[in-house]
Design a protein that fits this description.
Oligomer: single chain
Distance between the termini: 30 Å
Radius of gyration: 22 Å
Order of helices and strands: HHEHEHEHEHEHEHHEHEHEEEEEEEEE
Mean pLDDT: 90
Largest sheet: 6 strands, antiparallel
């Protein structure tokens, strides 16, 4: 009992120090700050939905939808209109404001910035900024979704206008995935010969503040069983990461939280956690779930009738773990991503890394390596199986390295048992601290 008491006091002391050092907190103002693009802890957890629909009408289930979004451990409300800002602020939710000026008459306008004159582009952004009335809940402004390269000149002007009228706020643009059609003609979605060219041109021509894209291949691969299809998920993630690191831009992604096609698998606790944990392990600075409301897709967190579903509970748990670790991980620099051999797709980097020599596990694992500004080293290990729990053992590059497990419940720190290893459920990840 004496030993247990000493251990408990030490454990509680570490929890307190970790909370102070890393900002692990469930207070609403902390959640709000992490959704704020101007803050160093920026780590948005966002439902990809227009709260009032693209036609700005309240549909069934959304009258109290902002409260349900907050209760689902999001720190952002999605895409809203000005009258929703006071409730967002009260709930500690950041928000991205939709266009509401006279040029925005329907959802199609989101994709038609290049049809606007320079004056209309400037006017639309200026109108959005004025409509926000300097609300602290506003994180940014919705510009467009999945543009082609032909849209980039107009989008550059929209981004510049946001920077002019609302310094420090986000001009929100989401990009195509790597399975969009390529080519330079009008029939191409990307408008570029390759996905790499598409990303590089976006950065060079639009001058964005973040990189965001969507990829739903976890579902389309039937829970990763179709490995050739699933390969896109990993390659897309690493390519956006590469461009983000090269240009010193934070990067975030959009993953599936509903059934997107009748023949696709439905969301499960395992695939939701898998998408969340691989996002963290790759060094991303935010995650977006498509979609929250089930207007067009079944098995969403909120059913078309307005009720919360089993998916809602699973997304809430995934978001809780993300929100717990975000104050730590938003301060880390991603230094490498590796996979155990054989990798889940050809061409992906395999161990050894700079910190981890090897990972012994009956299921494939992903290893993300990190450092902080003080030279501290971290690694995140993800079980890439959606069917099998497994215990992994690690061999660090140096035998002097001591490994500790950082809890996704309260940021507490416990020793990693190198002899027995650590079990992970399907799709689960764990953050480790590595110290000499």
């Amino acid at each position: 009992m004496i030993f247990a008491g000493k251990f408990l006091r030490k454990h509680l002391l570490w929890c307190g120090l970790a909370a102070m050092a890393w900002g692990c907190s469930t207070e609403k103002h902390s959640r709000f700050d992490r959704a704020d693009f101007s803050k160093p802890d920026f780590f948005p957890i966002l439902p990809w939905d227009p709260y009032r629909g693209w036609d700005r009408s309240v549909v069934k289930g959304r009258v109290d939808g902002l409260e349900s979004i907050a209760q689902c451990n999001f720190n952002m409300a999605g895409f809203i209109v000005p009258k929703d800002l006071p409730r967002c602020q009260k709930l500690g939710l950041g928000a991205i404001l939709l266009p509401t000026d006279a040029t925005f008459t329907n959802v199609q306008n989101i994709y038609e910035w290049r049809k606007l004159t320079d004056g209309q582009i400037d006017g639309r952004v200026k109108f959005m900024v004025a409509a926000a009335k300097a609300s602290p809940a506003v994180v940014g402004y919705f510009i467009t979704d999945e543009p082609g390269a032909a849209d980039f000149p107009a989008l550059a002007k929209a981004v510049a206008a946001v920077k002019k009228y609302a310094p420090g706020k986000l001009a929100y643009i989401n990009l195509f995935p790597d399975y969009a059609t390529m080519g330079s003609d009008a029939s191409s979605q990307l408008g570029a010969a390759s996905y790499r060219e598409y990303l590089e041109r976006f950065v060079a021509e639009v001058h964005p503040q973040v990189l965001s894209y969507d990829n739903y291949m976890v579902q389309y691969s039937r829970d990763l069983r179709d490995s050739a299809t699933a390969a896109s998920y990993y390659r897309n993630m690493l390519e956006v990461r590469r461009v983000g690191l090269e240009h010193r831009l934070p990067f975030m992604n959009i993953v599936a939280s509903c059934q997107l096609r009748p023949d696709a698998t439905i969301p499960s606790p395992a695939d939701l956690l898998f998408q969340a944990c691989t996002t963290l392990a790759a060094g991303y600075r935010g995650i977006t779930w498509y979609t929250y409301f089930g207007d067009f897709y079944p098995y969403a967190p909120i059913a078309k009738t307005g009720e919360r579903t089993a998916t809602w509970a699973a997304v809430r748990e995934a978001n809780r773990q993300i929100a717990t670790l975000a104050p730590i991980m938003s301060r880390l620099e991603s230094t490498g991503v590796f996979f155990s051999a054989p990798p889940p797709a050809s061409g992906l980097p395999i161990l050894p890394g700079e910190l981890i020599q090897s990972a012994a596990c009956p299921t494939p694992v992903m290893v993300g390596e990190f450092k902080d500004k003080d030279g501290g080293r971290f690694a995140m290990i993800v079980n890439l199986s959606l069917e099998q729990s497994a215990a992994f053992k690690l061999k660090p590059v140096s035998p002097e390295i001591q490994i500790s497990v950082i809890s996704a419940v309260d940021c507490s720190k416990t020793p990693f048992d190198s002899k027995t290893g650590l079990w992970l459920t399907p799709g689960q990840g764990v953050l480790l601290a590595l110290e000499n």
